[in-house]
Amino acid sequence: MAKITEIFFDCDNTLVLSEELAFEACADMANEILEEYNIPDRYTGDMLIKDFVGQNFRGMMGSLQTKYGFQIEPTELERYVKKEEDMVIAKLEAKAKPCIGATEELEKLFASKKYGFAVVSSSALRRVRASLKKVNQDKFFDHDKVFSAASSLEKPTSKPDPAIYLHALEKVGKKAAETVAIEDSKSGALSAIRANIPVIAYVGSYNGEEIQKEMAERLTALGAKAVMYHWSEFEDRLKEVETGSVEVHSTL
């Protein structure tokens, strides 16, 4: 395959430990909506993570509407999206921390000058930038190379839709085979794979060896080319991707 010259980083729970904080705020917002529509079920952050990890709030609301058979008017949905975004950003600015070893690996890769960097996320652009700034990782990414499925596209979407990765490829001027994506979730991995981008699955942010092993197996089954348990393994996993044969799972 072609030599990799561009690295696409997911943000949430790949670079920044943000998912738990974000889903706390998201659960509050989701429960408010369910109450307004007279739906008795309620969610905790952990329940939302289990059902919707890797999706943005807009994607989750689509899934909830399908599950419970109700419909939110577009203008009302935009109000909810903005309110949830503000709630999440407040939590991130107060408490977000980097994934273990992520900043150190970014420092090494950045100093090597071998690769271009971009962030490719489902989350809103304001949220992604707030996360990166809080953990002092924003210095590694050019302002115009942070991409959001919720904010950067003409029509907002969410992973596993490949649109945001296709958009990122176009903007950085790379072919899929020249890039690699680091993803921690099923929806994120599928998004990159559907754009023909090889994926390194990062499972280090999951709590406990058992769930890490389970996620490694799931993401490998989807088509991830390598699995990384700690950021210190990145260069070895990248070599595996560069020297291996990449097969596109077109049936996904």
Automatic annotation (TrEMBL):
Query: Which InterPro entries does the protein's record reference?
Result: Beta-PGM-like, HAD-like_sf, HAD-SF_hydro_IA, HAD_2, HAD_sf, PGP-like_dom2
GO terms (molecular function) for this protein are: metal ion binding; phosphatase activity
The cofactor named in the record is: Mg(2+)
Family annotation (SUPFAM superfamilies): HAD-like (SSF56784)
User: Mind listing the UniProt keywords for this protein, alphabetically?
Assistant: Carbohydrate metabolism, Magnesium, Metal-binding
PANTHER family, alphabetized: 6-PHOSPHOGLUCONATE PHOSPHATASE, HEXITOL PHOSPHATASE B
Name by which UniProt lists this protein = Uncharacterized protein
- Originating organism: Penicillium arizonense
